[in-house]
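Researcher: Structure prediction, please.
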Amino acid sequence: MKKLLLATAATALIAGAAQAEDIKLGISLGFTGPLESLAPPMAGGAEIAMKEVSDSGLLLDGSTVTSVRVDSTCIDSAAASAAVERLITTDKVKGIVGGMCSGETGASLQNVAMPNGMVMISPSATSPALSDMEDNGLFFRTSPSDARQGQVMADILKERNITEVALTYTNNDYGKGLADSFKTAFEANGGKVTIDAAHDDGKADYSAEVGALAAAGGQVLVVAGYVDQGGAGIVRGSLDSGAFDTFMFPDGMVSQVLEDKFGAEVNGSFGQNPASEGEGHDKYMEMAKAAGVDGSSVYSSEAYDAAALIMLAMQAAGSSDPAEYKGKIMDVANAPGEKILPGELAKGLQILKDGGDIDYVGATSLELIGNGESAGTYREIEFKDGKMEVLGYR
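Model: Predicted structure follows.
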């Protein structure tokens, strides 16, 4: 009888081990391009979540999770689509954290992810156009749409009694979408946009663009661009020529790089980026510091949440197949259920394994609305004494 019990136990162990997988998750971000300084902390955030889940031993009968990074370039849709195709066809990933920028994200989704039935959760693609894009239930965002950011920007300017601004935006889906939503909200608040002009990235000289913006005038120059590319070039040209000395910086400009490049030169300038406060945010910051990741970098916490959602949804579905777990993402992200914070993924996995419900709050106080995008909160910043200071959240 004892031998029979031992044999049965051994068989069960073998069966359990056979079900465990080495699950690969793709990370498609712009490691080169106009936001290359933001990509490493974002990838690091996603990989913190993957390690946390792997170390727990609780995902799908002891499955482990490893990352495969590819460079989306952020702006080259063809290169991004090719990179995502490699993730799916060659690396056999079961989900993708990405893309990073709106245009390449939409292209990768429609050209590659949808035909292959692959789930993508973007930490940072914010174009309002993505809200209504056909996605077969495969696409989600842990960042809010720029339809909301535009309204936040308009409200900040109104509170500062700024009634006239010049606006420049990077010439792509992100820039155009944000510029449109901002202009609509600002004018509805009674403001006037003296000029809204696109600028291209990668130029050595922006004097012509700055000259046109200066001729139109405005109390503030709104720069809806990229801190590693044309946005920084516009700011430098404006400062050097004396065209503007006060700027509003949306999310694509808000990072440590902005402070490093301009510091006290932009004192009095202000802006905002998606971010949250509270226990989840604080826990993530501690975890990121311990892992050597800059958790304060824009969209790093959103990347942690994106990876966490994929793995929790797998557990809820009992499968790593995107066709099976895509329908669980909204369930694990929202109430009802036990609230799950960063560092508590093992707790969430166990609850789901036992048949319970969770409400994943994560690092960004996450709540998915509409077609699977974050409701979002924003951190308001201002430059004082050469440093980027946090004024509050809204």
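Model: The radius of gyration is 22 Å.
Researcher: Thanks, that helps.
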